[in-house]
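Researcher: I'm comparing several assemblies side by side, and this is the next one on my list. It has 1030 residues spread over two chains. Same procedure as the others: predict the full complex and return the structure.
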Amino acid sequence: MAEAVDLKAIGTRPVRPDGVEKVTGRANFGADLNLPGMLHGKILRSPHAHARIKSIDLSGALAVDGVLAAISGEDIPGGGDLGDNVLANEKVLYHGHAVAAVAATSAYIAEQALDQIQVEYEVLNPVLSIDDAIADGATLVNESQHTNGDTSQPASNIAAITKFERGDIDKGFAEAAVVAEGEFRVPTAHQGYIEPHACTATINEEGKATVWCCTQGQFDVRSMTANCLDKQVSDIRVIPSEIGGGFGGKTTIYLEPVAVKLSEISGRPVKMVMSREEVFRATGPTSATLCRVKVGAKSDGTITAATAWLAYEAGAYPGAPVGPGCMSVLAPYELENFKIEGHDVLVNKPKVAAYRAPGAPQSMHAMECAIDDLARKLEMDPIELRLKNAADEGTIAPYGPQFPAIGLRACLEAAKVHPNYTTPPAEGQGRGVAVGFWFNIGMQSSAEIRIAENGAVTIMEGSPDIGGSRASMCLMAAETLGIPYENINAHVGDTEATGYCNTTGGSRTTFATGMAVIEACEDIIAQCKERAALTWDLDVNQVDWEDGQAVPKPGVNADVKPLSLADIARSAGRTGGPLLGRASLNAQGPGASFSVNWTDVEVDRETGKVDVMAFTGVQDAGRAIHPSYVEGQMQGGAVQGLGWALNEEYIYDANGVMENAGFLDYRVPVTSDMPMIDTQIVEVPNPSHPYGVRGVGETPIVAPLAATSNAVRDALGFRINDLPLSPPRVLAAIDENE
Amino acid sequence: MGDYAYAAPATVDSTVELLSSSASSGTRTQVLAGGTDVLVQMRSIDRGPRLIVDVKQLAETNVLSIGEDEIYIGAAIPSAILNENAELKSKLPGLIESADLIGSTQIQGRASIGGNLCNSSPAGDTIPALIANSAVCHIVGADGERDVPVEDFVTGVGTNCMADHEFLLGLRVPAPKGNTGDAYLRFIPRTEMDIAVAGAGVRLTLDDSGTCTAARVGIGAVAPTALLVSEAGDALIGTQVDDDALNAAAAACSAAASPISDKRGTVEYRIKVVGVLCKRAGAIARDRAKGS
């Protein structure tokens, strides 16, 4: 722990190294690569939400002038569910499911050729909601799916059930003086990244492929593409472009194996770019959910028991983030008696993908609404009630581990005295409070530090930068090496240029890749001390590293001038060759990040429109490496959460066709919808990180859902359980209550 | 996008000639003013080939005149130009505000009231405001010129009364006289960059005692076309445009609405909200007529 050290670089707010390229438009994103002779690939998508494919005839497309390749599911031999999602095999499982693909000399020709592909379907009943999916006698999305793989039981749309239990629920509720409970629905929401999925692939005569794409994880694209195509990871090189937003949605693949296969058949590079409509219809949003929660407390506010029954739509294949939903739902509270049960439910909708704190916003929306109701029944301030029951260092989290130092209590204390909280909401407005949580992850990272002849530092690492992480890497390197930030640049390497690195996700990058960068810097320092010792004819133990230069240790009798990084680099050829530091690790102890949010809203009782008038987020960052980017994460997450609370939802017709597959009718907030999102960073250092870092990117989206619901509850005088709080829903509720 | 041909004839006559010949040869043809709807359609809705006939360079589609009796707005004049015309804005604030609701500042550099009308969407924001203002479409074609009231122009979702050889030259709006005010309000779930769930435009005239002597109400996004709601206007005439009168006009709008439930709102929601908008727009128009 470097907590006591005077920090020079960490905590400052310099310009990001990738900034100029981005604001001038020079940066290359997924769709920006063009190669000589390149073809354009397009995908034919299912017009049905659920159907058996009886036959596919590609000959009509292949006969179109300008078409050089056409493929269907049988051309993607591997990958299991992932491969079946990339191109369907026996059944199409959602409207928009990819069925076939063509590559042609222009995008328009490719599109026209899709119309010439003949697909014969046997249309099946679609399963379109959790209620439908878990009903007795429900149509099965997958006839061979058994709950938790238990084939002794009949096939089911419930792919898995997860449970966490402790204590005695009945005893706990018997001790409760007040109980709050409810059933809450949260709709499907998309990450809404601005940049659609895009890739360009080429493969040579030896079967070696190169893929350029926008992704959060080039190494996962490599392994997933290799699996789908029954290739070795070493057959595929993946070069990540800059990324125009991911939020978890770019942690999987859709196009890459198709582009490689089309390239293999045509002998040409193939570029594929999704339209916005394809992004909505066929990429993974997050789960729609149904959550039933109950919580009881003594009259002094001590929570005695809680239960949560959660059901999450997985889409067409297993894998809803219901596990994290279960882990999060009661994480902020110290309690003895609880039961949490989560269900991973198949429906005929796109396979869900990660979205910022996957699964936590939905379950915590339900529980934080119930906690708010509990506070009302107890006539307690909602922050006081949470302080009374807050998890702290030593608390055994509901999902098992014992929390080390965590910042929930510090956040609640900071919120309680914050002027935005001590000032009551304006006349006619309602205020809502909620707590957010994300456990964060560590995992594998590698980093290399290269020193140029002039002492300039290049960091080579493998985490695609979705939130300013290159700036954070440079700051941690500047701090560790003791040199100016401006002397350092950070690069995200492709799969052949840098060591293995897990995907950017789970808020792991600044924590885990940052740790690798720090260790690689320490490796450089060790080497520099050796070079200086050699130069000065001293023992390495007689050399220190201070303020970016090698100096003799105090008391060492040596009449020498300090050697800077540049001095050592300049003469590196004479002292053992180029300076190259490296580190690889599997980072442990990521450190959970808690938050407290509150928002003030105004409701137009004649139109049902909810206006967000004020919003404040307080969050534990452990240590804010670049405070502006921490605040940016807090603000961005808040806006995504508010959008989900207010208007975002997938709207389906009775046949399972999404009706709002575009940004006009899938309503993310526009800037003028939002107040300034006020932020306060709390720093309770993570004991597992050299500088105390906790991941900060995901927690901010968690609490805004319930905070908004609770604020609308406060404004209206009654609760609306389901999201979004769109004008038609709110007006209907007002009419019903008057 | 598929292959397409583009022509920008220099005169009204040659434009009509091109439209006529391409209609008779069966060529798919689309008239373009600002192009802010056409380009989106070409890129994302229907990418098939077509002939684009650009009319924004004609002098006749760019006439803007503010006369004693009539205000003439050329069909291709961008909203940005209208927005910056202080005299126009003071005479027809509601109509200009309706144009200002469409698209971003950048889009308004090209988007026009004429284009919004010819696109003939049920949710076109300028259409209820034009109806409230008794605007008339000035159309030219192979058979010469003709005038059609805006409420009779749009015939269905995306369709209008113009023949293949015709196009819109401009709009004639009666100049407001005496104590006259107009207003347009729409409801969207966001604050901007959205499409109307319901809309209502009101223009009314008061005498010196504050009694309403003339009133027209147009509503949008609650039927296949924007509608003139005569009953709503009648409910205001002869009153002081007080809450009772506004509520009566609102009820008339709700009664006239025949919306659908879709991704933007339910039937019940739209019926209720179109009334709320009429009431609120009526109050603004009244205050404007009073000069406050």
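Model: For your comparison table: The two ends of chain B are 51 Å apart (CA to CA).
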